[in-house]
Amino acid sequence: MTLASNGISIERWTRSSRLALGGVALALALFAIAPLTLGAGAIDRMTALFIYVILAAMWNALAGFGGLVSVGQQVFFGLGAYFTIRLADTGLNPFLALFAAAIITGAISLPLSFFMLRLKGGEFAIGMWVISALTHMLVNLDRLIQGETGTSLISLNVYDINTRRVVIYWLALASMAALLGILFALLRSRAGAAIQAIRDNEDAATSLGVRVVATKRLLFVLAAFGIAIAGALWLATATTFQPKTYFSVQWTAYMIFMVLIGGIGKFEGAILGAVLFFVIETFFGAMGVWYLIGLGATAVLFSLFLPQGLWGEIERRFDLRLLPVGYRVKLPGPPKIQWNQ
Amino acid sequence: MQIATHQQGPGDAFLSARGIHKRFGALVVLDNIDFSMGQSDAIGIVGPNGAGKTTLLSALAGAFAPNAGTITFDGRNVTALSAAERCRSGLVRTHQVPKPFSGMTTFENVFVAASHGDSVSRDEAYERVIDSLTLCGMLGVANRQADTLGLLDRKRLELARALATRPKLMLLDEIGGGLTDGEASELVATILELRRRGIGIVWIEHIVHILLQVAERLICMDAGRIIADGEPRAVMADAGVVKAYLGGTSA
Question: pLDDT exceeding 90 applies to what percent of chain B?
């Protein structure tokens, strides 16, 4: 809480948000020691959950906070995996390759942003899909990948299967925690306020001194980097790389689904959405086509009846802010009555 | 037609526009505009609908590049600068149709302006926001999401945000439209306070009696041209101005 003039103060944390932050720290600590008790299958599932949280948080930052709706984010997921294969092939340690690949993908997103961010609204959304399809074809041309036959991250085989599983779990957990932390700090900073201002009205933002393109670029590159880490981690758990699996629009569909049901534009919403998606997939994932129909129906019902998502509804009903990125003004209350003279 | 010449050489003009020309397709909306003002001047702009007033304001603020002409501000040629950079150098505008950041609170709307106008510490930005909200009578709605604000508050928000950028010169576009007499006199008091702080004002307004309480100089535009410029009462009495308002084609 910062004191401004005349007893007015600006509140950025509430009691419930401080508790929530403690809860998050506790949960992360429990997740960190969980592999000691979890079975192999459960460890793999939890790794998938962490990757889903990264994907949902990144798409939410881009679309929910920045207004940059993209249906081509799978391009970064695919590139993260592809560069991991490429770097590992040169002899780089596969675990190091995961993060080097994400950095390369983030670096590639920078020149890409120079023309993609000129596009607005639907043009940007579809344009990103086009970029993804083009990139997919280019990756197929690489002889190492052998077209749609694909290849594997064979250098992982030097590690024993159980060690590998736990290391990937920890890397996914650490990546999720770090990326959520970076995103949370960014959205709470003044750049975060600018990001939301651009989403709501670009003209007004620029006329108030916000450097619109630079701000969008920051968000675009961060989202590319985060989604590339998710793609690289997915490759590490699956070990096989088939371009059409990674460059599939299904990944962006999952991101949109998670963010819509969790609550678009709410930091907590994306995390909740990823957990919900994970639960649905765990219980109904084996049902094939009916599972996909169920996902679609759920998305339709949410957009009709809970457009703010589950978290939006919780926040509205209980005025609950666990991980707030905004500002609350506390005005000085009426003077206290002195009962004792 | 020039009614009164201003005792101001080009050297001491704080904001000046020379030969500004803007067309949209075949339609000429700004036709060779020449205009200059000093740092703490208060200028009103009037004219019938479609005269080019808002377009002129947008050109000065940097919303688009004119087809021809030069704009200088605070001793610097700003013609090629974006609106954001002009704002950072002290030239800010408001919008005729309010453009709130609808998903953010009133406080957050103004905070965006306070924290991006120039480099300020967070506490300084907070102080600026509180000062702007207080001056514009918006402290009570500081935590309201902007899309729940009524028209009056949306107009006040335009002014509060612009003020929070700590401008040297404000370009105001019809912030008084649709106000009751009481609200209008509050607005005039606010603008006079800005004047007292040394902020220059260019104000487009249809409600002339409000404008005349602030403006020391009045410009009348018609069909993309400045048809009169000078002492307010003389401009209002000018035959060309009367004709532009009451019908007939402008001379």
Answer: 74
| Assigned architecture for domain B1-90+169-251 | 3-Layer(aba) Sandwich (3.40)
Structure tokens at B168: 């040297």
Burial level of A284, CB count in 10 A (0-12/13-18/19+)? middle
pLDDT at B12: 65
Token duo for residue B179: 């106000």
Give the largest CA-CA distance in chain A: 89
Find the chain A residues whose C-beta atoms sit closer than 8 A to any C-beta of B: 2, 4-6, 8, 10, 190, 193-194, 196-197, 199-201, 203-212, 265, 326-329, 331
**Torsion, Cα of B102, B103, B106, B107 (10° steps):** -150
Instruction: Sort A14 into a burial class: Cβ within 10 Å, 0-12 / 13-18 / 19+.
Output: middle
Instruction: Tell which residue, B129, B173, B176, has the closest CA to residue B151.
Output: B176
For residue A229, which of A63, A105, A64 has the smallest C-alpha distance? Answer: A105
Domain ranges of chain A: 2-330
Alpha-carbon span A337 to A92, nearest angstrom:
71
| pLDDT tens-place string over residues B38-61 | 998 999 999 998 899 999 999 999
Both structure tokens of A7: 């007893």
- Nearest by CB to residue A2, choosing from B93, B99, B126, is B126
Tell me, yes or no, if B54 comes closer than 8 A to chain A by beta carbon. no
CB distance A196–B131 less than 8 Å? no
Fold category of A2-330 in CATH: ABC transporter involved in vitamin B12 uptake, BtuC (1.10.3470)
B217 close to B230: Cβ distance less than 8 angstroms:
yes
Residue A280, Cβ density class (10 Å: 0-12 exposed, 13-18 middle, ≥19 buried)? middle
Q: Kindly state the average pLDDT of the residues B219-242.
A: 90
What is the Cα–Cα distance from A276 to A194, expressed in whole angstroms? Answer: 30
Chain A within 8 Å of B14 (Cβ-Cβ)? no
- For Cα atoms B195, B197, B198, give the angle at the middle one, nearest 5 degrees: 65
Mean pLDDT of B78-87: 95
Say how far apart CA B242 and CA A321 lie, in whole Å: 58
Q: Who wins on pLDDT, B148 or B244?
A: B148
Q: What is the ipTM of this complex?
A: 0.90
CB contact under 8 A, B112 and A193: yes
The C-alpha atoms of residue A92 and residue A203 are separated, in whole angstroms, by 47
Instruction: Evaluate if residue B243 carries a pLDDT over 50.
Output: yes
User: How far apart, in whole angstroms, are the C-alpha atoms of residue A184 and residue A324?
Assistant: 9
The tokens describing B197, both together, are: 């702080």
Distance from CA of B91 to the nearest CA of A (A): 9
**Residue ranges for chain A with pLDDT beneath 50:** 1, 340-341
Instruction: Report pLDDT digits (tens) over B94-151.
Output: 999 999 999 999 999 999 999 986 678 889 999 999 999 999 999 999 999 999 999 8
SS3 B152: helix
Question: In the beta sheet, which residues pair with residue A240?
Answer: A152
Q: Which of B107, B118, B139 sits opposite A327 (nearest CB)?
A: B107
